Amino acid sequence: MHPQPHHDNGHPLRVAIIGGGPGGLYAAALLKRLAPSRDITVWERNAPDDTFGFGVVLSDETLGGIEHADPEVYEALQRHFTRWDDIDIVHRDTRHTSSGHGFAALGRRRLLEILHTRCRDLGVDLRFRTEAPEDLPRTHDLVIAADGIHSTTRERHADVFRTRVTHHRCRYIWLAADFPFDSFRFEIAETEHGVMQLHGYPYAPDASTVIIEMREEVWRAAGFDELDEAESVERCAKIFAEALRGRPLKSNNSTWTTFRTVVNDRWSHGNVVLLGDAAHTAHFSIGSGTKLAVEDALALAACLEERDTLPDALAAYEAERRPVVASTQRAARASLEWFEDIALYLDQPPRQFAFNLLTRSRRVTHDNLRLRDARFTETVEREFGCPPGTPPMFTPFRLRGLTLHNRVVVSPMDMYSAVDGVPGDFHLVHLGARALGGAGLVMTEMVCVSEEGRITPGCAGLYTGRQAEAWKRITNFVHDRAPGTAIGVQLGHSGRKGSTKRMWEGMDEPLEEGNWPLVAPSALPYKEFSQTPRDLSRAQLTDIREQFAAAAVRAARAGFDLLELHCAHGYLLSGFLSPLTNRRTDAYGGSLEKRLRFPLEVFDAVRNVWPGERPMTVRISATDWAEGGTSAEDAVEIARAFAAHGADAIDVSTGQVVADEQPEFGRSYQTPFADRIRHTTGIPVIAVGAISSWDDVNSLILAGRTDLCALARPHLYDPHWTLHAAAEQGYTGPGATWPAPYRAGSRRPQTGRTDAPKPRLSLGSGDARGG
Q: Where does the FAD-binding domain start and stop, copy by copy (predicted)?
């Protein structure tokens, strides 16, 4: 073995490729084309004409990479592509069509034939019906494991690659129809056994791919677990007879399976590197499997050309591809989970349901869907209730006696800048600036109900009259100078996460001096170096409940329009809700019902003294991101419980409950939890978590995934975020009122050319499916 080939200098690079799918074959062709002296062999256990699945969708972006790297392959593909522009969504006997998407597909067998021909023409050694020898890493300079989701190469070194495989909740089967659909078609069948869905698209003048998918429990209830292949195919054809025009379906060794998401912490081991499904998988509903494999091959070939040593090349390949793949997998996961939970959305207004489906992965958004198909998007907006020309984010929303003039909330953000709990000039400027910035609701930071309930010495409070008077100065400013903007207060108690330094001095680190004793549901420190709290006695629970009520009375007198009870992020009330932080054996611990008892007692005490016409919301952590913690299902029940006691909306956050959490960060990553609560319970929700653009807000609101969107960091970056969002959308109507002194700046400054043509819209394969 030659451990560190240097651009093939000194000897021709010997490359072994395990797996003769599109990714492996394309990698072979590229590497041979770039350096004809390379000795490249592909091992494929199946015959050359064996293939599974039917059609393959490739994006314009992927095709552009192929055209640049190998024009001959590109030209061959072009001759066989089937192209179309529409997506049809058929639900409850109504078809909704969205146009302007742009698809290209061809048969998987045809794709393999093209790549076989290209490899042979270049001199690649293709060995079919042959298992790859286990000693390839010893006999070759580079081994590319493109042997799919069941990669034996990956499994052989699973401890090095640190593979994680997640099994999901739907069964699906790949089939084909003997006619071409004229669009990408999603069809929903509501059967006596549950919801089933068809995903179909053309890939040849006389053929379409058809995927039938349903939840595991639906699959079993319908009896598919007892049918053989032919019987399953026949049953599917009957269920979706109208979509199939009465035509039969055909299979190709098709079996029902569950999707598995594959993630590897490392993609290479010595001179072995993973590619395509061996390295990562993305759910078929965004159609990125072949796309990712081909793009892996392009990147790997480029890195081998650009780097001097194999380790450097493999490291560069992974560094380049991992962020792209991670983003795609997040989108695929969102799409997958949307289809798993499709039953939640069936009662949405028809066009909103279609919009929700098209934007399910968060890659297709309100703005780019509007650019592709303005008529469809405007119809959805009209059905939602948007006046002509009004973005969804600028529609009003009512909570009890309070009408918010738009759907934007300045999320609570701890400022740690109070003195003795008293908010000062900083708070006036901070909250006043954001109120002038046009948000419908501006929330305070967590305002503590007692001195002992502070997180840091800089936390604001509402446990003295002096503090209440200082808050009244701020609410008066908002009401006088930012009419239409409401201001809300978030009440909380730090629990075991108190007596720490300010965030910029050392987040969650205990004070070096001046510490105060902590209390919590159970005597569990937040971190190893944290102070251990005392578990609360019954008498202390009563005292704290009364502290919350007294703070609420002061908040009402201070003029706040809305009150939020903080039951999230591991603070005191959150500590009662999570089984990871509540180990009590009395009436306040154990089952979820018992863990809810004290937070509900506090809520009731606050609601009893809070003015009846003013709304109350509750912020919860919908998951602890830790094994054995609060689950998404628990969060639904928690929301139901608070709503039954009079909560007007649930502010749905996640995590920060235990220090060893493992969050799944990403764009709008917390919104699915709000979405589930809203559609399961009907309770209004506030979505938070990496919502960063006005396009995200419009998309989430119009799809019905949330009622309000709370943004934190964007408002730190730009206090006038909401008004700037209006200007960028050319909107000047209700819900976007500029303060009189600022109106001269209400038009967005023009920079550079404004007549430049918009780029042609192109989508990844999954994006083209509406994901």
A: 14-329
Q: What is the pLDDT of residues 621-638, one digit of tens each?
A: 999 999 999 999 999 999
How far apart are the C-alpha atoms of 670 and 710, rounded to whole Å? 11
**Cα 226 to the center of its chain, rounded Å:** 35
- Could you give the residue numbers annotated as active site? 571
DSSP 8-state code for residue 413: -
Rounded Cα distance, 201 and 86, in Å: 10
Q: Pick the residue with more confidence: 443 or 512? A: 443
Amino acid at the residue 333: R
- Distance of alpha carbon 295 from alpha carbon 282, whole angstroms: 14
Closest CA to 274 of 93, 492, 24: 24
Look at phi and psi of residue 529 and say left if phi exceeds 0, alpha if psi is from -120 to 50, else beta.
alpha
Q: What is the pLDDT of residues 74-110, one digit of tens each?
A: 899 989 999 999 999 999 989 999 999 888 899 999 9
What are the helix (H) ranges across 645-749?
671-681, 694-703, 713-717, 721-728
Whose CA is closest to 385, among 411, 407, 360, 402? Answer: 407
CA–CA separation, 434 and 409 (whole Å):
10
- Strands (E) in 92-206, as ranges, are 94-98, 103-107, 125-128, 142-145, 163-177, 184-191, 194-204
16/462 Cα distance (integer angstroms): 69
Structural contact between residues 208 and 113, judged by C-beta atoms closer than 8 angstroms: no
- Mean pLDDT is lowest, of 422-426, 480-484, 567-571, 754-758, for 754-758
The token duo for 447 is: 């305002």
With a CB cutoff of 8 Å and minimum separation 6, the contacts of 365 are 359, 695, 696, 698, 699
**Locus of tokens 């809520």:** 603
User: At CA 357, angle to CA 353 and CA 358, rounded to 5?
Assistant: 120
The alpha carbon torsion through 675, 681, 685, 691 (nearest 10 deg) reads: -10
Other C-beta atoms closer than 10 Å to the C-beta of 154 total: 24
Kindly report whether the global pTM for this prediction surpasses the value 0.85. Answer: yes
